[in-house]
Design a protein that fits this description.
The protein is α/β, with parallel strands linked by helices. The protein folds into two domains: 258 residues, Spore Coat Polysaccharide Biosynthesis Protein SpsA, Chain A; 247 residues, Spore Coat Polysaccharide Biosynthesis Protein SpsA, Chain A, CATH 3.90.550.10. It is built from 18 helices and 26 strands. Strands 4, 5, 6, 7, 8, 9, 10, 11 and 12 form a nine-stranded mixed beta sheet that branches. Helix 4 links the parallel strand 4 and strand 5. It starts with 7 loop residues before the first strand and ends in a 20-residue tail after the last helix.
Length: 589
């Protein structure tokens, strides 16, 4: 039977449009299709909740959690499903605070009567509709819990949502903010689709998009301290709230389970971001205000065709610091010429030097090109004529470098964005940042590097490899800035003193694994490593040193020593519901 219902547009968190035909979403290349996700829900998801009842029984502290819901002319069927999802919680110490700003008397009457069915439900009639922010704040005033949770009036909770939160709080009572994975719920409430599996707390990702959204549970004392939701930011009130809240604490926990279901309802940003076009403008203001509060020198930059995606371009105060770009090479003059030429011709950053380190080069073409480069005062040429060891060559280059910042760069790369150094150094100059890596493409414009995930493909892999940057996946977009445990040293920026602080590259590695180990040492020293997609280069991977099939066994052995804790416990910047064997993102099966 043909379905003649009209197609409607669905906006993903990146703001890109998909089309839904009769409730079915046709996604870009990698989003999980409805059938595959349904199988995952049936076969895998129950396993993640299999021990929830038993773990809840063992919980020592069972705090009251107040769920705050702003309502406005809520359709009865949405309200019924919301109330049922709260009442069906296996954790029973909750309070539901419904702040009703409805102008429809029948809607308010129905809501008031429905709330009388359970004495844990507090009905607050707002005298006049105060919008999302005002109505939510009215609900917050009635909240008595030590923690508050936020829901939209047309959404639903997993029956395990509050239990999982309480279990997490019991494991770490100092936690101030908890968030979970999420998916979308069809308008009729019968179909779940479009899952979003998130990383653990990623400050740089939050600067690009409100990836946390729902389900959020926050410590009430901090909510009160920051004044609840801020007026004038309707549409991006959650984003602004999270930016302000996370400035007060880093005790943030992610529960990698889908505890929240967004409704794909008419008028909802879950379906169509353009329904609330003011949300994008409000989000820009929220981020700009956050930068000002934090004393960050940055400008807001528009991202075309991606509403509710944001970006800061970090600036440097005072004169440009010197940057030393270290490029090891052995012959392959044409490759070196392409790399160096792209830097000298395109780079808009002025204060840099090239530290070119020859490793046993013998060809006449190489010698002739180096003689040519000696005429450019930005180029410094050195010789390290010993058996190849990538770590030793770069550490040697670092000793020759005079820059406040270092950029490790492969000779098989080519600059795309002229302001690549401004972008990388701008991020690397921020407090708490370790290594910064750009978006690297293969020559065919698919992704070579958008961050490194431990355990992927067995040891460490490049997440999103061979996708295009605007692909939507169940892990979000490659085009978003993110934190990772490591970024590739094919192009890596870091403050020189931090490079020295962790001992540079580990010289027990010969070919591979040294950059991941370096990233882990920075991470363990308390720094955040960042993938920054707004600096772009081409990487002709393996052209210079050959295939990774030739990596010595010793490099694998050393890598395993470094990686073991993260292989055992999981990479915090990836999601355990996703398959580590697929760099292109796939659900676990």
């Amino acid at each position: 039977m043909l379905d003649h219902r009209p197609a409607v547009k669905v906006f993903l968190p990146d703001g890109s449009k998909q089309r839904m035909f009769a409730g079915r979403v046709k996604q870009k290349v990698l989003g999980t299709n409805r059938h595959r996700y349904s199988k995952w829900i049936k076969n895998y998801e129950p396993l993640s909740f299999s021990g929830t009842y038993e773990r809840l029984k063992a919980v020592k502290s069972k705090p009251l959690i107040s769920i705050v819901v702003p309502c406005y002319n809520t359709p009865q069927r949405y309200l019924d499903e919301l109330l049922q999802s709260v009442k069906s919680q296996i954790y029973e110490n909750w309070q539901l605070c419904i702040a009703d700003g409805s102008t429809d008397g029948q809607a308010s009457k129905y809501l008031r009567e429905a709330c009388k069915q359970d004495d844990r439900i507090a009905y607050i009639k707002v005298g006049e509709n105060l919008g999302i922010v005002g109505n939510t704040n009215a609900g917050l005033e009635a909240a008595k819990g030590k923690f508050v949770a936020f829901m939209d009036h047309d959404d639903a909770l997993s029956q395990y949502a509050l239990a999982e939160v309480v279990i997490a709080l019991d494991e770490d009572p100092e936690t101030d903010l908890i968030y979970s994975d999420e998916d979308k719920l069809s308008d009729n409430g019968k179909t779940r689709l479009l899952p979003f599996f998130k990383p653990d707390w990623s400050p740089e990702l939050l600067l690009g998009i409100n990836y946390i959204t729902h389900f959020v549970v926050a410590r009430k004392s901090i909510v009160d301290q920051i004044g609840g939701l801020r007026q004038g930011l309707d549409g991006a009130q959650d984003y602004d709230f999270l930016l302000r809240f996370t400035e007060k604490t880093d005790k943030i926990k992610h529960i990698p389970k889908i505890l929240y279901h967004w409704r794909l309802a008419d008028g909802s940003t879950a379906k169509n971001v353009s329904e609330k076009s003011y949300a994008h403008s409000a989000g820009k203001r929220a981020l700009a205000d956050a930068a000002e509060r934090r004393g960050v020198t940055a400008e807001m930059v528009e991202i075309p065709k991606r509403p509710t995606n944001y970006r800061l371009r970090f600036g440097l105060t005072g004169p440009q610091p010197k940057v030393s770009i270290i490029i090891p090479f052995k012959d392959k003059a044409n490759l070196l010429k392409q790399c160096v030429g792209s830097i000298l011709l395109k780079t808009t950053y002025k204060n840099y030097e090239l530290i070119l380190v020859s490793n046993n080069s013998t060809q006449t073409l190489t010698h002739d090109y180096l003689e040519e480069l000696k005429q450019d005062k930005r180029c410094k040429i050195y010789y390290w004529d010993h058996p190849f060891n990538y770590s030793k060559i770069n550490n040697f280059g670092r000793k020759k470098a005079k820059g406040e910042y270092l950029v490790l760069l492969n000779n098989d790369t080519k600059v795309i964005t002229p302001n690549w150094l401004e972008e990388l150094i701008g991020v690397a100059s921020q407090p708490g940042i370790g290594a910064v890596g750009p978006l690297l493409y293969y020559p065919n414009k698919t992704i070579q590097h958008a961050g490194v995930v431990l355990g992927m493909t067995g040891m460490a892999g490049h997440v999103f490899r061979r996708l295009v940057s605007n692909n939507w996946t169940d892990f979000g977009m490659p085009a978003w800035p993110r934190n990772y445990l490591a970024v590739t040293a094919a192009c890596l920026a870091v403050r020189a003193k931090k490079y020295d602080e962790v001992g540079g590259l580990d010289e027990t590695f010969t070919v591979a694994g040294n950059d991941v180990a370096f990233g882990l040492r920075l991470y363990e020293a308390g720094y955040r490593n960042v993938y920054w997609p707004f600096a772009e280069l081409v990487h002709y991977e393996n052209v210079s040193v050959g295939s990774y099939k030739n990596v010595p066994q010793l490099d694998y052995d050393h890598s395993l020593e470094y990686y073991r804790p993260y292989l055992d416990k999981g990479d915090p910047y990836f999601n355990p519901n996703l398959d580590l064997m697929h760099e292109q993102i796939s659900l676990r099966r």
